[in-house]
Specification:
This protein has 146 residues and is of the alpha+beta class. It has a single domain (2-145), classed as Arc Repressor Mutant, subunit A, CATH 1.10.10.10. It contains five helices and six strands, in the order ααβααβββββα. β4 (95-98) and β5 (104-106) form a beta hairpin. α1 crosses α2 (19-31) and α2 (19-31) packs across α4 (51-63). The radius of gyration is 17 Å and the shape is globular. The N and C termini lie far apart (44 Å).
């Protein structure tokens, strides 16, 4: 299922369909949340590709808007894509970053607060990240309190 969505997204973006591009998108669709380059490259179907090839193709998918990057508090990028991106969502949904375990989650599409940018600025991108503790980490804390 995710391979079909990946191929459809590549076709709509007028990008040549290659195995690695299809695999990257399929992995991101299947995982459904932002992951690091290391997480992507450790997936079984991508282990045989070298790091440079993976980075190059990931960057192309970023440039074409099929994948979006979210910067974590540790300074590393995490990447995600959603089937909805096929329909034109360029990653404008908000994200939640757990400051305890470092996992990042996509939040449901919702209105993101509007920020007026001075007219002499050129916006290159936007991201909206909410920081806190995920339910799993909060529950771990409750277990130790008992």
């Amino acid at each position: 299922m995710s391979y079909q969505k990946a191929e459809e997204a590549l076709r709509k973006a007028d990008i040549r369909i290659t195995r690695i591009r299809r695999e990257i998108l399929a992995v991101l669709y299947e995982l459904g949340h932002p992951v690091s380059h290391g997480d992507i490259s450790s997936e079984e179907q991508l282990r045989n590709f070298d790091r440079v090839t993976l980075y190059r193709n990931l960057n192309l998918l970023l440039e074409k808007g099929l994948v979006h990057g979210v910067l974590g508090t540790d300074g590393s990028w995490r990447y995600c894509a959603h089937p909805k991106d096929v329909e034109g969502c360029p990653g404008r949904h908000p994200h939640f970053l757990c400051m305890e375990c470092g996992r990042m989650f996509c939040l449901p599409d919702q209105a993101i607060p509007f920020v007026e940018v001075p007219s002499d600025f050129e916006v290159a991108g936007k991201q909206f990240v909410i920081y806190g503790r995920c339910a799993e980490c909060r529950n771990k804390g409750k277990d130790t309190e008992k």
